[in-house]
Design goal:
Elements (H helix, E strand, L loop, with lengths): L4 E5 L2 E6 L2 E4 L6 H14 L9 H11 L1 H21 L3
Antiparallel strand pairs: 1-2, 2-3
């Protein structure tokens, strides 16, 4: 998997992960976009680039993204378990 990245094209911000661009909501501010980028690293289980590890670590702590990403993933797995349990 390639490293996730943020980019802008024609006024729309995208996160590119595994060579697939995913649009970020039009009303997202830049700090939300950076959080989504950090979430992408967490969800896809990709290590930060060695050159930027310290920068991403600071961003995680400043934005509390590490806690939010873990909460988000736990909530998704709980919802998936509820859906699977209600299959009858």
């Amino acid at each position: 998997m390639t490293q996730p990245m943020l980019f802008e094209a024609q006024g729309q911000i995208y996160i590119k992960a595994d060579n697939t661009p995913m649009p970020v909501s039009n009303n997202s501010c830049f700090d939300d976009c950076v959080k989504f980028l950090l979430f992408a690293y967490f969800v896809f289980n990709v290590c930060y680039p060695a050159e930027l590890k310290v920068v991403f670590g600071v961003l995680e702590r400043v934005m509390s993204a590490d806690y939010e990403a873990q909460y988000f993933c736990r909530r998704l797995s709980t919802e998936d378990a509820a859906v699977v349990g209600n299959k009858d």
